[in-house]
Amino acid sequence: MSGSHELSALRLSRRMFSATLAFSSLFAANSRIAASLLSDDNQTAASGGEHPLAPALRHARTCLEKVKAMPGYECTFSKKEVVGKELISQSMKMKVRHEPFSVYMYFLEPAKGREVIFVNGRNDNKLQVHETGLASLIGTLSLSPDDTRVMAENRHPITRAGLSNMLETVIGQWHEESKYGETDVKYFEDAKVGDYTCRVIESSHPQPRKQFRFHLTRLWIEEKTGMAVRVQQFGFPKNKDAKPPIIEDYAFTAIKPEVRLTDRDFDTNNPSYNY
User: Fold this and answer.
1) Helix (H) or strand (E) run with residue 127 in it
2) pLDDT over threshold 90, residue 41
3) CA–CA separation, 133 vs 139, rounded Å?
4) I want to staple 6 with a disulfide (CB 3.0 to 4.6 A). Which of 1, 95, 189, 192 is the partner?
5) For residue 59, which of 234, 270, 222, 180 has the smallest C-alpha distance?
């Protein structure tokens, strides 16, 4: 789903969603999440009230703690993002390990069969890329994460891949935006991402301002696990009758947090891979 009205058929329920936020915050009261929340609350109290983004930030931080509690995971990753002036769509199977930060990608579309490995601190901190078709005859390519050939298809380098980085980016954005007014926050239920039923936090800004990179941001949170599984970012519409254009749309489905990932999963010598 995409577009500014894709949630119009969903139930808008701030009361129920806010209750979930309150429970999550209470449950985490003795963790380091609580310290961050207390800091935010002190800042908003000093300004005379809680910013609309404060509850959203608390919940996003709780989601981040859930991700960081996992050593790693497998998933299907789908994305749409504007690179230059082009909207690029890709989907892939992905493995992510947090320590050391490691990523394996097997592309489903386009370039089906392309494989990419990145391990922080290994291979000179370069991607190990195996192409398909005639390009595969070149052998394994060793490319910097910010190589122009890589960034021609990507808005962000592979060093920013994965659930944790996605959440940290949204948290950083909302934290900066909470310093200003002109922010509306809504809560939706019964949204779908693949087989997941999600709640959605949506923040928006009525007017373009230099402090707001996006007109509208949506964070999708799976109801059963509390895992954040999708982020959408929309630009400001060109006129009042136009829909806000999609800038970024990142979705994680079929997440398997119980897998045990080892160095072998991020090694070009793995016989299961086609390097």
Assistant:
1) strand 127-130
2) no
3) 11
4) 1
5) 222
